[in-house]
């Protein structure tokens, strides 16, 4: 779960990180009121889950009420790489002497959190890593011991932080680890981590990703809703316990199991088709789940044909077939379905579909045959 | 021979009294796996179809000496169950549970490494292990597989069935099928399992089925080049996956330019591993190598 800047900053503040005063708002009126209350100059910042906000015109300095009004009006509703701005963060402007970078991410390969620090902040850190890797200091933290103050000081020093701010930077690094570990984050990043003229380190931005599997330990994270960030069909599917990801094509896909579903997308693409979605109906798909899945897939108006690719392990093919029949009984659709059933109770499942003889249900014997069939049917209808 | 589980396996199950836990435990026993016990706190002294239930792993270990633990408890209890089984001296822990917090997995991995180096963890979020004709621990539908010389290691369950079935349809069987799971911090990596298959005399060909996210496939490629003499066929799912979207598994996500299927296939091919572009192609390459 990715958080907006101001949501991340709430978690930062909770764990003692220095941030600037600010207000999150959703209307121009509230933006101006917040700016007046905070006192000028303020920064009007678009809250979207995508980088490059500044370049896209989503971050502007306002020195007075007229400018606050102008910027809030322009930025609300702005489209930044497909992300519409629904929220603004109005923040008291900071004086900046230096821009550093700090982050902690889950290093899957090392099975440990990785702390990174650089004095080359404010720009794309992947560029720093590529062009001047010596300017990016990395240190793995033992997740059982946590970070020590000595490690934080060592990283700040090694990274070339000015001598008079090393203690202040170390404070931030220790607090950033606190956020990472206590909030079940998989990423906490500050870019830029600024040094103010009075030589204090402060988080000017916040990028935080929380672990979805750990949200039960953080009920307050429910408030971190991001309007428009999730496709409405994805949201509906999630509420019903299905893993659905919207894609750009016109062929609806259902597979049982994430790996098989992903593989099905690939095989359809290789057959010349364009998948409209990823949908994992999960291991124990019963008839009710299948019926819901059909509704979810068909709620995308671009879908011209649908492929069901089932290899039953826990999943029983007869239940899938019955679920499909139940869905067809309720939803009147002429969209063709290609159905491939293999594995547990496959013969029974195929027989159920055969006897029902629904004109727009087309059986297929193999995954490849199913992919070719569904691509051909989608082309016929476009 | 096979790897990890065989006729000497003595299985005990955490969560044996749950609906899914009891169903799959009994399935495993029907297959021929020697199921010696189960653990559910508060239900010690009961039994599941004759399998004795204990309150703790310590009691279970003292009572029936299991050498393999299967974890079937809900995500919030799974980390402790794994560590408890390890503390009781169980050498192999197979965790089926899906949805365990990444930080719990991180903690478990590092505690096992530090305090219980004698315990190997496979999973979490995996379908388990099947050694056809010998033992089945987990949820792999054993009926589709027979004994043979192809070792399979995979991050995904149903995709493994698909590939295994295509190979079986062409007349070949499996030494062992190992699901390492789709989470960000698996207990065992491709590299760990490849080393076991390399040492297993029954295994003549290894199929490695990966997917987007992380760098486990790249690390496997490096390991294969240095340490594996047996032929390896690769498969990677997720060529069409868009960046930043989690494709079902918690670990299956392309972050920036890292973790793409194309990069993984290239890494494997650069080390001489043939990569099938579809499950069918994987089976065809297997036939070519083993002689159809």
TrEMBL record, chain A:
Signal peptide: none annotated. GO terms for biological process: succinyl-CoA metabolic process; tricarboxylic acid cycle. GO terms for molecular function: ATP binding; metal ion binding; succinate-CoA ligase (ADP-forming) activity. InterPro entries: ATP-grasp, ATP-grasp_succ-CoA_synth-type, ATP_grasp_subdomain_1, Succ-CoA_synthase_bsu_CS, SUCC_ACL_C, Succ_CoA_ligase-like_bsu, Succinyl-CoA_synth-like. Residues 9-219 form the ATP-grasp domain. Its cofactor is Mg(2+). Pfam families: ATP-grasp_2, Ligase_CoA. Keywords: ATP-binding, Ligase, Magnesium, Metal-binding, Nucleotide-binding, Tricarboxylic acid cycle. GO terms for cellular component: cytosol; succinate-CoA ligase complex. HAMAP family: Succ_CoA_beta (MF_00558). This is Unannotated protein. It comes from freshwater metagenome.
TrEMBL record, chain B:
This is Unannotated protein. Keywords: Ligase, Nucleotide-binding, Tricarboxylic acid cycle. One of its GO terms (cellular component) is succinate-CoA ligase complex (ADP-forming). Residues 4-100 form the CoA-binding domain. It comes from freshwater metagenome. It holds the Pfam family Ligase_CoA. GO terms for biological process: tricarboxylic acid cycle. One of its GO terms (molecular function) is nucleotide binding. InterPro entries: Cit_synth/succinyl-CoA_lig_AS, Citrt_syn/SCS-alpha_CS, CoA-bd, CoA_lig_alpha, NAD(P)-bd_dom_sf, SUCC_ACL_C, Succinyl-CoA_synth-like.
């Amino acid at each position: 779960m990715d958080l907006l800047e101001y949501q991340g900053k709430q978690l930062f503040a909770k764990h003692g990180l220095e941030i600037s005063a600010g207000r999150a708002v959703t209307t121009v009126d509230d933006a101006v009121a917040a700016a007046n209350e905070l006192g000028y100059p303020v920064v009007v910042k678009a809250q979207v889950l995508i980088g490059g906000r500044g370049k896209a015109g989503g971050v502007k300095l306002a020195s007075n009420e007229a400018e606050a009004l102008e910027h809030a009006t322009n930025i609300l509703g702005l489209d930044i790489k497909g992300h519409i701005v629904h929220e603004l963060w109005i923040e008291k402007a900071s004086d900046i002497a230096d821009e550093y970078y700090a982050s902690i991410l889950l290093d899957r390969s090392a099975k440990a959190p990785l702390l990174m620090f650089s004095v080359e902040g404010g720009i794309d850190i992947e560029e720093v890593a590529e062009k001047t890797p010596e300017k990016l200091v990395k240190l793995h933290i033992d997740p059982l011991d946590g970070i020590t103050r000595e490690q934080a000081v060592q990283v700040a020093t090694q990274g070339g932080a000015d001598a008079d701010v090393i203690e202040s930077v170390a404070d931030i690094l220790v607090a950033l680890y606190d956020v990472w570990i206590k909030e079940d984050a998989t990423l906490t990043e500050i870019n830029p981590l600024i040094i103010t003229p009075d030589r204090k380190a402060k988080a000017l931005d916040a990028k935080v990703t929380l672990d979805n599997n750990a949200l039960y330990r953080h009920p307050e994270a429910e408030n971190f809703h991001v309007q428009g960030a999730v496709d409405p069909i994805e949201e509906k599917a999630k509420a019903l316990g299905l893993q659905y990801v919207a894609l750009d094509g016109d062929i609806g896909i259902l597979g049982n199991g994430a790996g098989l579903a992903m593989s099905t997308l690939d095989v359809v693409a290789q057959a010349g088709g364009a998948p409209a979605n990823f949908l994992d109906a999960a291991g124990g798909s019963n008839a009710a789940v299948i019926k819901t899945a059909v509704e979810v897939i068909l709620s995308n108006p671009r879908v011209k044909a649908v492929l069901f690719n089932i290899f039953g392990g826990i999943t029983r093919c007869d239940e899938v077939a019955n679920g499909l029949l139940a869905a067809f009984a309720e939803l009147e659709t002429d969209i063709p379905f290609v159905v491939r059933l293999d594995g547990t109770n496959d013969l029974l499942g195929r027989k159920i579909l055969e006897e029902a003889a629904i004109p727009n249900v087309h059986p297929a014997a193999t995954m490849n045959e199913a992919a070719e069939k569904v691509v051909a049917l989608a082309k016929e209808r476009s | 021979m096979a790897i990890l589980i065989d006729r000497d396996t003595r299985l005990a199950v955490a969560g044996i009294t749950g609906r899914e836990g009891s169903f799959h435990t009994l399935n495993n026993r029907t297959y021929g796996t020697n199921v010696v016990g189960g653990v559910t706190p508060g239900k010690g002294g009961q039994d599941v179809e004759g399998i004795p239930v204990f309150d703790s792993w310590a009691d279970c270990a003292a009572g029936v000496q299991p050498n393999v633990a299967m974890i079937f408890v809900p995500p919030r209890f799974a980390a402790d169950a794994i560590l408890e089984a390890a503390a009781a001296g169980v050498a192999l822990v197979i965790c089926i549970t899906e949805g365990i917090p990444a930080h719990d997995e991180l903690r478990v991995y590092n505690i096992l490494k530090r305090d219980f180096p004698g315990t190997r963890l496979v999973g979490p979020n995996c379908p388990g292990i099947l050694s056809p004709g010998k033992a089945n621990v987990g949820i792999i539908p054993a009926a589709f597989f027979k004994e043979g010389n192809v070792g399979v290691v995979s991050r995904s369950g149903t995709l493994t069935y698909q590939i295994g079935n295509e190979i079986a349809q062409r007349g070949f069987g499996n030494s062992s099928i190992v699901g390492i799971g789709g989470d960000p911090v698996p207990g065992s990596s491709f590299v760990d399992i490849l080393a076991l298959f390399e040492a297993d005399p029954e295994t003549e060909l290894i199929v490695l089925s990966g997917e987007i996210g992380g760098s486990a496939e790249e690390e496997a490629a490096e390991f294969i080049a240095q340490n594996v003499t047996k032929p390896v066929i690769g498969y990677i799912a997720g060529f069409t996956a868009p960046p930043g979207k989690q494709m079902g598994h918690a670990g299956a996500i392309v972050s920036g330019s890292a973790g793409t299927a194309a990069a993984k296939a290239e890494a494997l091919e650069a080390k001489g591993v043939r990569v099938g572009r579809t499950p069918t192609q994987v089976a065809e390459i297997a036939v070519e190598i083993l002689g159809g």
